[in-house]
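Section 3.1 - Work completed
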Amino acid sequence: MALPFNPPKRTNPALVIAGVVGGVVVVGILAAIAIPVVLAQQKPKPVTLTLPATFDGSPRVTNSTAQQATDLVAQGLSGALPRVTGNFDAAVYSAGTSPAVLVAAGKLTRRPTSEDKARFFQGMNNAQGTDDPVTLAAVPPGPLGGMTECGLANSSQTPAVVCVSIDDSAIVFVAVYTSDITQGTMTALEVRSTVEHK
């Protein structure tokens, strides 16, 4: 009488072991190829950030008020994207007659995802004080690329255009103390191109 199925054949244990070992080796090789590729994609692009001694003829201000402001901004930006942001350096520039500029810049420790960037800008909008909220809006980022958002703040009765840029290398924050949103945005993009070099 014929069985409705073929009975299993006895498998050679050596072949089973060889098959398992071969599978593990293949997975190991694929991982050895994939891991460096993934890590390279997460590594930020090389960048040089330099806060010059002067900007547009305005010297860097070194008094305690400027130091307090730059420390506060640098500290806030350092915690903006945990595991992505590194340390920030900041400076204030003023010649007395032209609008003062506050700039903070920091390299990223890993390349941000599009979700990281969206979360960053959402956090920037939420981080503004209730006395002087700033609504940031996307603007063309200029030749350095990435994403840039700018808005007008009235901090302590002093209007300022605030622009924040993030790309695959760095975050640059610029506050230009003027109420002219167009001129302030143009100045902020100029400051960013002076500070960030790819």
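Second construct:
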Amino acid sequence: MADTQATTEAVMKQMFGDSYQPASAPASTVAPAAAATTEPATTEPPQGVTTEPAAVTTEPAVATTTEPKAETPTPVAAELTEEQIIAFLKKNKGIDVKSLEDFVPRVDPVVEAEQKENKKIAYAFEKGLISRREYDAYVSDKANEQNVVYENYVADAKADDPDLTDEQIAESFSEEFSLSADPNSFKYKQGQKRLGIIAGKLMSDKHGKVLSIDSEFSNYETSIKQKEERLNKILSETPKYKSEVEAALASHSKVKISLGENDEYEVSLTENDYKTIKEAFLSQEQAEQMISSGYSKEQLDMSIKMAIREANFDKIVRQITDQRLAKYAKGTQGIPMLEGLRDVKVTANKLTDKEMAYAKHIGLPVSEN
């Protein structure tokens, strides 16, 4: 038992280093022996002597407090790197690997090819690209392409000379492609090469629909992969995007408009003014569109800035107009204060089109001259 424990501790020490602390052996508790109780001996007093019973004094029991025993924390194993694990396996288990990926089960290429072919055909049937009959005919011809060539050869021979017998055609076919030659000879190999070329052309003409599935399915797989990559990108970048939207909105809590040198205005907007903009930019559709397009922080900031101005255009124009009118009212050049503006005839050369529209809106007499 002691040897096993020592071996275990040695292995754990090797794996986890100094962070490993062996659990202390539980202390054995021995119950105290029961105190023996002896009846006191009774002594008869001498005759004629009266004895008073001795006074019994009981000392109060002293309460004892047992301090709780501090629990030893469970040791936490140190996180091992891949290199340390590989070194441990080689030294202690005799397992020599280059990477932990060597433990990942490998898929048999043949099995993998079959699985892909099955998926491709299932996709073709589902989309109605081919019928079962067409596919079965293709499989049959694919298994014996030389027969496909022979059937075509027979058809051509019969068309040229209807009197030819099947034996004559078969003999001619064998000579044409050197089928009786030594399989290791150049002549035989050239015959097989020619057969392969002709078979490929005939299969393409006869089974074009089935063969086109390869490109169709390849495009389908590519689209699926792109969708997965796009989804993964959106999921990973959404928190960052939302954070940047919030930051951009905060940076545009005040809208500053410059209409020229020394002619700047600051418009304050309420949280409610931003509500629609915020909801629009934080919507799933907008987030996916921005992330998929590979937006930059500057582009996002500019988009939000323009959206805020467009959504609150009337309010911004109104506040700027009020501020400009206030400037005019406080100016020198004989322009009266705001309360007297209704008696002032405003001409077009003083205001922009937007300001003129607002002046008309509040009832100021505007001259078009």
